[in-house]
Amino acid sequence: MAKRTPLYQTHVASGARMVPFGGWDMPVQYAQGIIHEVRKVRNTVGIFDVSHMARLEFAGNHAGQFLDTVLSIRASRLKHGQARYHMICNEKGGIIDDAIVYNLETNRFLLVVNAGNADVDKEWLSLQKDRFIEREGGDVDYVDRTDEIAMIAVQGPNAVAMLSKMTDSEIDSIGRFHAGEATLDGERILAAQTGYTGEDGFEIMFDSLHAPAIWSMFVDAGATQCGLGARDVLRLEAGLMLHGSDMTVENNPYEAGLRWTVRPNRSEYIAGATLRKIRDKGTARIIAGFEMRSRGIARHGHPIAFGGEEIGVVTSGTHSPTLGKAIAMGYIDVERSEVGTAVQIDVRGRTVDAEVVRLPFYRRS
Fold first, then answer.
1. For the sheet containing 17-21, what is the strand order?
2. What SS3 class is residue 37?
3. Do 361 and 323 form a contact (C-beta atoms < 8 A)?
4. What phi, psi does 158 have (nearest 5°)?
5. Which residues does residue 313 pair with via DSSP β-bridges, in sequence order?
6. pLDDT at 224 over 80
7. Which of 151, 217, 227, 140 lies closest to 185, judged by CA?
8. Strand, coil or helix: what is 273?
9. Sequence-separated (6 or more) residues with CB below 8 Å from residue 303
10. What is the pLDDT of residues 290-344, one digit of tens each?
11. Which value, in Å, is the radius of gyration of the alpha carbons in the chain?
């Protein structure tokens, strides 16, 4: 049976269409549809229930030191309130998941991972923690906070102003990829300047018991309820990756265009030696962006060709309401990845012209 977030009944009462996603029952869209939701996020404010994402807390005198061994960045160097996007890679450099880690306070970190990968993440991290303690004799505690903490994403050009009016703190002073505490309707929240839409906004975390009331506060303030469908379109427009589609454990961060998330020159890092070799040797393929030049929408799995020869595969594709054109991402041979290269994509047996373009497709002005 699929899990349900604290907002499940709220979504149903609001007329959302619910679908299974990552082991959870989640809203894919509301009555006015995905395009309406996308436009509201790009122009005003949209809210998303992201409570399905796992929230894993690591604490103890050696928590940062342990995370340094399993994350692609140095968690121990984060200052209080800082957050970093990173990869969780196995010893072969394969991407188990992408995630965000927050330094909540001295020797206490929060790791937010994807819902569909949560069980794999927890199993792998628990195994590595036990090995670390056995090897180093370190003090590291691990607790899954997912059920007790709800999470809502507030996104759009008016998101910061809306949240500022609703809280007792100067929310607008929290910088990008930083987090701070505030009070919302008498409840303490953690407000993080992070998101998955390419817009300004926050992801806020708080006691699950208060989720319906807080969600309703945003709706009453004028925020549009948004589902997974809009979230997927928005993240693709912004050139953001989706684990399970644009990257899997079969991909490494270098071919996935995520070199900037990796600090491999560390002896303690489990994937360091392998990732250094991949970095130095280079990769045969790389993720690229595509715009369709003739009628058709590319989807996951569609082959990409050049001169009649298959050179890649689409990982994500959609029609962009914001840009008014069909866009896609996919892996392509490095020698054919130059911006401006004309390629062909097989859309269900029909050849559609496309062109390699620079990512992201959309950038907030």
1. 3-4, 24-29, 17-21
2. helix
3. yes
4. -105, 5
5. 303, 331
6. yes
7. 217
8. helix
9. 310, 312, 313, 314, 345, 346
10. 999 999 999 999 999 999 999 999 999 999 999 999 999 999 999 999 999 999 9
11. 21
Closest by Cα among 297, 309, 287, 306 to 348: 297
How far apart are alpha carbons 341 and 355 in whole angstroms? 6
Q: Tokens representing 341?
A: 């290269």
* Token output for 136: 């180093």
Tell me the sheet residues that pair with 203: 153, 192
The pLDDT value given to residue 168: 81
C-alpha closest to that of 204 among 217, 194, 212, 216: 194
pLDDT in tens, 150-192: 999 999 999 999 999 999 878 889 999 999 999 998 999 999 9
Residue 330 DSSP class? E
CB contact set of 308 (below 8 Å; sequence gap of 6+): none
The model's pTM is 0.96
Residue 167 is given by DSSP the state B
Give the separation between CA 354 and CA 49, rounded to whole angstroms: 34
**What is the helix (H) or strand (E) element at residue 67, kind and residue range?**
helix 63-70
DSSP class of residue 333 equals E
Dist CA 16 CA 257 (whole Å): 35
Q: Which residues pair with 46 in a beta bridge?
A: 155, 224
DSSP of 246-257: TB-TT--TTTTT
